[in-house]
Specification:
214 residues; alpha/beta; two-stranded antiparallel ribbon; 9 strands
């Protein structure tokens, strides 16, 4: 389905803790070789005593060369997550979360996870600062860490929604600071028949992304 739409990057979701063991079990049989980029999203909420088991499961996926995206507010023991090194991508958070929303808050996270990369969620950044100034600051301050983009819109309840004119227009303001080679994951909840049109909306929002040689 995704390959037919010309997609080269995919993120495997284990946002719910219950999804992670099944993903680990299925991983050896997944046919993903045609994707240029594969990543995994770690559970966003879990009991503290589950953290060692979760990290062990995620490490088995990271060993396949799949970077692991994590919400910083889901981390209890930073020293334990540091073991994933550069295979870990920290995602910036929406306005509801107490950490990781701004460039300054992300800097505090990266001080504790010095090898980690950045997954920039444009919708979270726009919700936190609709002027997109904070998104610009994140891109400038953490440019060397940028490894993946999430794109969609978010509603008033902070749930991801389809791209519309407003976010597409606003994302263009910072697209020039995103290298063209950075993988983009479309997080919009769409039906199969809407995949192609949503990808076109994402391409329109990032039309000014820098070419690799820039």
């Amino acid at each position: 389905m995704l390959l037919a739409a010309g997609v080269e990057a995919v993120e495997l979701s284990a946002l719910r803790l219950s999804e992670l063991p099944g993903l680990v079990a299925a991983a050896p049989d997944l046919d993903l070789e045609r994707f240029r980029h594969v990543s995994v999203h770690a559970p966003s909420k879990y009991p503290r005593d589950e953290e060692p088991r979760i990290l062990s499961l995620l490490a088995s996926l990271a060993d396949r060369g799949w970077p692991v995206v994590v919400h910083p507010d889901a981390v209890f023991d930073y020293d334990a997550w540091r073991a994933l090194g550069s295979r870990l991508l920290v995602e910036n958070m929406d306005k509801r979360k107490p950490v990781g929303r701004s460039a300054a808050e992300l800097r505090q996270v990266f001080e504790r996870l010095p090898e980690a990369g950045l997954c920039l969620d444009l919708a979270h950044a726009r919700q936190f600062d609709p002027t997109m100034v904070e998104a610009y600051r994140i891109l400038r301050l953490h440019a060397a860490r940028l490894r993946q983009i999430h794109i969609s819109d978010v509603g008033s309840s902070s749930k991801h929604t389809r791209l519309t004119f407003g976010p597409i227009h606003d994302f263009l303001d910072v697209a020039r600071w995103i290298p063209e080679w950075v993988p983009v994951i479309v997080e919009s909840p769409v039906a199969e028949g809407q995949i192609a049109s949503e990808i076109e909306r994402a391409r329109a929002a990032l039309a000014d992304a820098l070419p690799l040689s820039a």
